[in-house]
Design a protein that fits this description.
Helix 2 packs across helix 3, helix 3 runs parallel beside helix 4 and helix 4 packs parallel to helix 5. The protein has a 6-stranded parallel β-sheet, with helices on both faces. It has one domain: Undecaprenyl pyrophosphate synthetase. It is about 45% helix and about 15% strand. The chain is of the alpha/beta class. Strand 3, helix 5 and strand 4 form a beta-alpha-beta unit.
């Protein structure tokens, strides 16, 4: 029986986040430059989106480009920004066909204008789609996000007694999305790399040694099936969860 056949469709995670790691290492194994790995990774993205739609995931957030990635060699950064334009242009029809809405989080002011314009066109075109919300984390880091939220709170001069966890959540870039239920990280690394730190307080983690360009739908299903074998207690005892308290 395949992982897809074993998945309980009544307990599919509402929100899956993915750290897509291993593109550069994959390219080096193929004796190519790193950008070849990033281009090849688009197939894995396509597979993940189709898998999420197929089993009813409502939100899929992909860690596409971190604020730290701006420190990479300029040629690689430039290539990634051009690849972003190509990917959005080529995938817009597929998003429409699959009823997928595209959105972004991150410091979009740092994204080159051409890339930002192409993204916005796709966001506008897919705005009415309702099957899956695909969120690209671009020029994003969690520490940047939290710092931006605190700056806005200070600008609005909120009193200390007005600030609680819910207040801060409303100032985060992810305020319109539920927290991730499941994080998938490929590439064999066991860290979260400054990604959705606030939001992943109770997220289940799934780590894979697979390099991202090799990721396919069955690997997505395996991660979801593994997630479904866990008991999420959110601080409660096992007995409380089993009794529905």
């Amino acid at each position: 029986m395949t992982a897809l056949e074993q998945i309980d469709r009544s307990r599919v995670p509402e929100h899956v986040a993915i750290i897509m790691d291993g593109n550069g290492r994959w390219a080096m194994k193929q004796k190519h430059e790193r950008l070849f790995g990033h281009r090849s990774a688009l197939t894995a993205v396509h597979q993940a989106v189709e898998a999420a739609v197929r089993i009813g995931v409502k939100y899929l957030t992909l860690y596409t480009f971190s604020t730290e990635n701006w420190n990479r060699p300029q040629a690689e950064v430039d290539g990634l920004m051009e690849l972003l334009i190509t990917a959005v242009r080529d995938e817009t029809k597929t998003l429409m066909d699959n009823n997928v809405r595209l959105q972004t989080i991150g410091d979009m002011d740092r994204i080159p204008e051409r890339s930002r314009k192409k993204l916005q066109e796709c966001i506008d075109q897919t705005a009415g789609n309702t099957s899956l919300t695909l969120v690209l984390a671009l020029s994003y880091s969690s520490r940047w996000e939290i710092a931006q939220a605190l700056k806005q709170i200070c600008r609005e001069e909120l009193r200390p007694e007005e600030i609680d966890e819910e207040t801060l959540r409303r100032y985060l870039t992810t305020r319109d999305y539920p927290d991730p239920d499941l994080l998938i990280r490929t590439g064999g690394e066991l860290r979260v790399s400054n990604f959705l730190l606030w939001q992943m307080a109770y997220t289940e983690f799934y780590f894979s040694d697979l390099l991202w360009p090799d990721f396919r739908q069955e690997h997505f299903y395996e991660a979801v099936f593994d997630y479904q074998q866990r008991q999420r207690r959110f601080g409660k005892t096992e007995a409380q969860v089993e009794n529905g308290k």
